[in-house]
Specification:
- The protein is α/β, with parallel strands linked by helices.
- The protein has 12 helices and 19 strands.
- The protein folds into 2 domains: 188 residues, CbiD-like (2-Layer Sandwich); 180 residues, no CATH class.
- The chain has a 6-stranded mixed β-sheet.
- Helix 8 packs across helix 12, helix 9 runs antiparallel to helix 10 and helix 10 runs antiparallel to helix 11.
- Keywords: Cobalamin biosynthesis, Methyltransferase, S-adenosyl-L-methionine, Transferase.
- Belongs to the CbiD family.
Length: 382
């Protein structure tokens, strides 16, 4: 086996985002496709193309350096590609994605296997049947297309087994949604375009959608979108929900609501920190601090509706933090937490646009204490 430096120059990896100056990266699916292409080429020609160039679904043609290569005497070849996620904080950045390609008898087609570090689907509701390797449909198509192109160029049949593996993939997967989605043993091989756009958060949003799919497939009629692990624990304590009914929505309240609007469940609980849910109450669907702020003027208006005096409302509006505003109101008997929860529920219902989903909201403080609740309400006030 020949190991090359992970930092070896790779053509196309200096692509910039015009509006931010941040580098694009490549998905695990693109890396697996490049590794497959190089390995199959070596099986047919005896030589590894390095770098290896592939064509992405939208026509881009990046080149990838080989980080590992091995040509066996038993009709197998292995290539490893180090994933470069560009400037995106991707948990799989730097992972070594390997493809081991083995020749199969004519007529066998392309067969996919999960090697070490790649998960296997164990629950329904995902784009792949139970028992299949967690190699998503677009990467499968990309690999199949490139196998066909290499076969046509070098006289192969195109009948191969492709085993994709990821070094330390099982460990990496613990930082992803895979265990909750029933994808066990490692990460998924993902990507619809082959490109990772920095800070697009597309992988997280896709995980939210798959979480809804898995919950529905399991027959769950009540799910909870939670901003973090503390709010998840509270949702479980209040409603007794199983793990596969919990959606780690983080800051992406809009992603949960828009997907459930198209794929409804009977009931949605939104649970999170008071400050984050005050942003939802004020109409923000992205709750990240870089993209939305706590509107203390809005909190002051809610406090007034809840019976706050003029001086209390003014104190709320000039408070340093949302938590201070909450504490000021609590000391004067004004239920600001409940008012925020009700407003967040109303905003969620507005985004759901009449979908047959009842929504309730739980606001907590940093210690996990419930500081506000809104009872379930469905479309039309039901």
């Amino acid at each position: 086996m020949t190991e090359t430096a992970a930092g070896k120059a790779v053509g196309g990896r200096t692509a910039q985002l015009a509006h931010t100056g941040l580098r694009h990266g490549w998905t695990t699916g693109a890396c697996a496709t490049a590794a497959t292409t190089a390995a199959y080429t070596a099986l047919l020609t005896g030589e590894f193309p390095d770098p290896v160039t592939i064509t992405l679904p939208k026509g881009q043609t990046p080149a990838f350096a080989l980080a590992a290569e091995e040509l066996g005497a038993d009709g197998r070849a292995m290539v490893g590609i180090v994933k470069d996620a560009g400037d995106d904080p991707d948990v799989t950045h730097g992972a070594l994605i390997r493809a081991t390609v083995r020749l199969l008898p004519p007529g066998s087609g392309v067969v996919f296997r999960a090697g070490p570090g790649v998960g296997t689907v164990t629950r329904p509701g995902l784009p792949l049947p139970v028992g299949e390797p967690a190699i998503n449909p677009v990467p499968r198509r990309m690999m199949g297309d490139h196998v066909a192109e290499v076969a046509a160029r070098h006289g192969g049949s195109g009948d191969v087994e492709i085993e994709v593996s990821v070094d330390h993939g099982e460990e990496i997967a613990r930082s992803t949604w895979n265990p909750r989605l029933g994808i066990l043993g490692g990460i998924s091989i993902l990507g619809t375009t082959g490109i990772v756009v920095p800070y697009s958060c597309s992988a997280w949003i896709d995980s939210i959608r798959r979480g809804v799919d898995v919950a529905r497939a399991a027959g769950r009629t009540h799910v909870a979108g939670c901003t973090g692990s503390t709010s998840e624990k509270v949702a479980v304590a209040v409603h007794g929900l199983p793990e596969d009914a919990l959606l780690d929505m983080g800051d992406f309240a809009g992603a949960v609501l828009k997907y459930i609007r198209r794929h409804p469940v009977d009931r949605l609980t939104v649970a999170g920190g008071f400050a984050k849910l005050s942003k939802l109450a004020a109409g923000h669907l992205d709750l990240h601090s870089a993209r939305s702020q706590v509107n203390k003027g809005f909190l002051a208006e809610l406090a007034r509706r809840g019976g706050a005096s003029g001086d209390l409302a003014e104190a709320v509006e000039t408070a340093n933090t949302g938590l201070e505003a909450l504490q000021l109101c609590a000391a004067r008997g004004v239920p600001l937490g409940d008012l925020v929860a009700a407003a967040a529920r109303d905003e969620a219902l507005a985004v759901l646009r009449g979908a047959p989903v009842a929504v309730d909201v739980i606001c907590i403080d940093r210690a996990g204490t419930i500081v506000g609740q809104a009872e379930p309400l469905g479309p039309g006030g039901r």
